[in-house]
Amino acid sequence: MEYRREPIAVVGMGCRFPGADGTDALWELLLAGGDATGPTPEDRYDAEAMYSPEPALGKVIAKRSGYLERAFDFDAPFFGMTPAQASYLDPQQRLLLHAAYEALADAGLTREAVAGTRTGVYVGNMNLDFWDVIARRGPEAITPSVIYNLRSVLSGRLAYEFDLRGPSITVDTACSSSLTALHLACLSLRAGETETALVAGVNLKLNAEEDLLLSQARMFARDGRCKFGDARADGFAPSDGAAAVVLKPLAKALADGDPVHALVLGGNLGNDGRASGSLLAPSIDAHAEMLRLAHEDAGIDACDVDFIEAHGTGTPLIDPIEFAAIGDVLGKDRPADRPVLVGSVKSNIGHTEGAAGVAAVIKTALSLKHRRLPASLHYETPNPKIDWAALPVAVPTATVDLDGRGRPLLAGVSGQGISAANAHLILAEAPRREAAPDDGRAYPFVLSAATGPALLDRARDCAAWISEHTHALRDVCYSAAVRTTHHAHRAAVHAQTRAGLAAALLAIAEGDAPAPEGVGAAFCDGEDVDWTAVFDDTASFVRLPHYPWQYATFPIPEEDR
């Protein structure tokens, strides 16, 4: 398939979602039809004490939502912070640092490769609960250090940590924040303002205020689940989440040998204006216009889109409008036997608000890559306010095999903000890359970590990973040497087979590492190694296991909640 203009490649992804500590775990959760929402933890607020089955002042109508199990865990020394500094840092920044590092590693981009480059940083966010935590300590708590927790520093923190010299922008369009941020990043890349973009979103609930508001407005799902498209839809489940993706123009990504998870072909941002007659109410006509403009920008026919990752909150007001607009635009000239599939990742992990757009893009990219669309959960009785007979749409209730369509798959991703600030992006399946076969030669495998214990964990993780995968030994060793950020604690082995490499790495993990030799010894001594003399241009990047974080927990003190 030829595209009207050069697509933007999604080359790296990282995430922290309820029930999914990384993109592999997210894909497993989606395929299993997992619902990762759960009871409100006591370290957020006492939901039992504040519960009321009906809206009432000072009460919440649900006792569950989506929460990160390790929301307050952070590897402070890895990012050069003391425990005291980490304790007073907005935990949203901590989550972003981990997700961003993993997204860059997923792309095979080292710190040295991105430092000082025109890489833009775009972060979507709508809640700043930690600021409220600080303010509750009284006027004396407003010290100079508080400035590090301003919303603008969410993007600034990433730009500083990785020395990224492009635009640094924090975007707040409510629930469409990170999808809007991603669209802005694509515009910057197409304009040549940046050469790479790091796009992220984050949301972390630390207190009861938002749940109280949503309960009063009858937008908080009583069972803490997003039931998109269902007759029982009664609101959404506001949830924790952090996610990041790395973008490059496709030609640059291919030239650099980067992995390509999916392509962004185009998109559109819009607002409903006065079309609905109410500031906060969405409009079918305005939403449909946004969808038409997004497909026009992408240069594709809407009838060719295979599935839509909807905004999909499961609210009585928004669901019928979203389905009607999708049917109006994507239904034209669509074959009757190929309805557009419409689902929502919010049914699995809740509504991650400022991170929801990037969450939707990651799910969509994984679905395109694997050519499988996971089920959208909690869809049992079709919402009677939706004209299902007239609309060429279907909600997948089981995983759908998308293979064999004879062309690259196409998908849309939607996001809506409370003030009707909406976004829609068109994604496509990435071109498939065929790796060169293994050449049977021996290669050095190098690994490193910031601490000794992390190095042993790294060796153990890599040994297990190598035993489970069939990548060429050359590609595995090249990726470890050339496309991975290196740290002070180091080890190296030589191997001629994957089995031999796995055994050698297990020996390192057990403290019985063989003495390194050749370029491996030079690497362990901290010398600069000319890896071009070791690997030829047939070597390809493969993503190795993520860095083994050495977490410590930095909870919100009891008296501050």
UniProtKB/TrEMBL annotation:
Transmembrane segments: none annotated. It comes from the Bacteria. Keywords: Phosphopantetheine, Phosphoprotein, Transferase. Gene3D superfamilies: 3.30.70.3290, 3.40.47.10. The keyword Phosphoprotein applies. Residues 5-429 form the Ketosynthase family 3 (KS3) domain. It holds the Pfam family CurL-like_PKS_C. Belongs to the thiolase-like superfamily. Beta-ketoacyl-ACP synthases family. PANTHER family: FATTY ACID SYNTHASE, SI:DKEY-61P9.11. This is Beta-ketoacyl synthase N-terminal-like domain-containing protein. It comes from Glycomyces mayteni. The lineage of its organism: Bacteria, Bacillati, Actinomycetota, Actinomycetes, Glycomycetales.
